[in-house]
């Protein structure tokens, strides 16, 4: 089974389905690009420059937000402007498909590592040791390499076809290969990680229920306070839920497209398929917003930085005025001291009122 539709014909509005849909689609992409880029950049800056936020879990949040920014900077400009060279470029079609699934793979692998870190903090607190920078860096590199390897099959969905009537070639998607790759990605990058994350959080819930309301005295110096662990766990849960909600329509619509031969007879399905990337791109905005919404420490440091920036703008003139006043006082003081020194050197006595001649 073959298709003469390119990736952009299948996934994007290029103006062929109506100018209104195309305008709405570009407007949605622009909003996601601005909000996602600003929010992910703030999270990246906070984790990078605030020492209190540097821990193993937040490092993977940093990887998640950085991958969101890279994906937004690469994917959305081509979506909006659509340069002419990509339409019949096999390399670009394969690359954009690979980048899309690489973003999904990095996201779910980072969420899996964060969930495992929370599980160890609750279920096996005695096994937790001080996280060294090199160990965390090796974990990040391993996650990136594993994510890049797992999505390699997605880069070979597009092939070059020949049109004998028009004596030309074009880039198309092999639907047989697309179906296999779709089921492969959905099972390996969506269903299995989410099931594993669910198992980890069920184990955490069972442990917390059996542990009781208080922490044992012998473990207090080995684990973080219960409230702090709960906040971090809720942040990770929010990220996992946003990933599951945003990527479920992506895989569901693609499976319907591959398995249903009468797909084109249902305009609503085709409309939703074209909006499929926009739904999955919402995850890049929801991730940092959920971090600020559920993470009290992130909010505290963000408001602190914003307040300091506003105070600097307001107090800058008064600081200049204070510095200028201090400089004038120092100048007057130095002049006065130099005058007294000169009088002492010349043995000059101050003129008293009674010594003055009328």
From TrEMBL:
The keyword DNA-binding belongs to this UniProt entry's keyword annotation: no
Annotated G-protein coupled receptors family 1 profile domain residues: 39-291
Pfam families: 7tm_1
GO CC field: plasma membrane
Subcellular location: Membrane
Spans traversing the lipid bilayer: 23-47, 59-78, 98-116, 137-161, 181-202, 232-258, 278-295
Main location: membrane
Gene3D superfamilies xrefs: Rhodopsin 7-helix transmembrane proteins
InterPro entries for the chain: GPCR_Rhodpsn, GPCR_Rhodpsn_7TM
Molecular function per GO: G protein-coupled receptor activity
Recorded topology in the membrane: Multi-pass membrane protein
Domain of life: Eukaryota
Keyword list, A-Z: G-protein coupled receptor, Membrane, Receptor, Transducer, Transmembrane, Transmembrane helix
PANTHER family linked: LEUCOKININ RECEPTOR, LEUCOKININ RECEPTOR-RELATED
Homology family: Belongs to the G-protein coupled receptor 1 family.
Protein name as annotated: Neuromedin-B receptor
Organism encoding this protein: Holothuria leucospilota (Black long sea cucumber)
């Amino acid at each position: 089974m073959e298709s003469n539709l390119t990736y952009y014909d299948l996934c994007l509005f290029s103006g062929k389905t109506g100018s209104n849909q195309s305008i709405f689609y570009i407007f949605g992409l622009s909003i996601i690009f601005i909000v996602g880029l600003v929010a992910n950049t703030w999270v990246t800056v906070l984790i990078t420059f605030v020492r209190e936020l540097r821990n193993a879990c937040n490092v993977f949040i940093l990887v998640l937000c950085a991958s969101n920014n890279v994906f937004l900077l690469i994917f959305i400009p081509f979506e909006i402007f659509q340069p002419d060279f990509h339409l019949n470029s096999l390399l670009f079609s394969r690359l954009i498909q690979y980048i899309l699934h690489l973003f999904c793979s990095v996201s779910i692998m980072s969420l899996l590592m964060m969930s495992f870190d929370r599980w160890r903090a609750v279920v096996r607190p005695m096994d937790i040791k001080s996280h060294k920078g090199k160990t965390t860096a090796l974990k990040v590199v391993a996650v990136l390499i594993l994510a890049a390897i797992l999505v390699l099959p997605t880069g070979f969905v597009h092939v070059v076809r020949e049109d004998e009537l028009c004596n030309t070639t074009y880039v198309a998607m092999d639907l047989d290969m697309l179906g296999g790759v779709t089921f492969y990605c959905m099972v390996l990058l969506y269903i299995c990680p989410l099931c594993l994350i669910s198992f980890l959080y069920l184990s955490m819930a069972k442990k917390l229920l059996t542990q009781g309301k208080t922490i044992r005295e012998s473990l207090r110096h080995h684990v973080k306070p219960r409230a702090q662990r709960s906040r971090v766990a809720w942040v990770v849960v929010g990220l996992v839920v946003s990933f599951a909600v945003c990527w479920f329509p992506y895989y569901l619509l693609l499976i319907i497209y591959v398995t249903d031969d009468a797909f084109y007879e249902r305009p609503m399905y085709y409309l939703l398929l074209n909006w499929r990337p926009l739904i999955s791109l919402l995850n890049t905005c929801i991730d940092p917003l959920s971090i600020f919404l559920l993470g009290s420490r992130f909010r505290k440091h963000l408001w602190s930085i914003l307040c300091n920036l506003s105070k600097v703008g307001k107090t800058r003139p008064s600081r200049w005025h204070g510095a200028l006043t201090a400089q004038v006082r120092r100048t007057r003081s130095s002049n006065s001291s130099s005058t007294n020194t000169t009088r002492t050197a010349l043995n000059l006595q101050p003129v008293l009122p009674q010594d003055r001649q009328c």
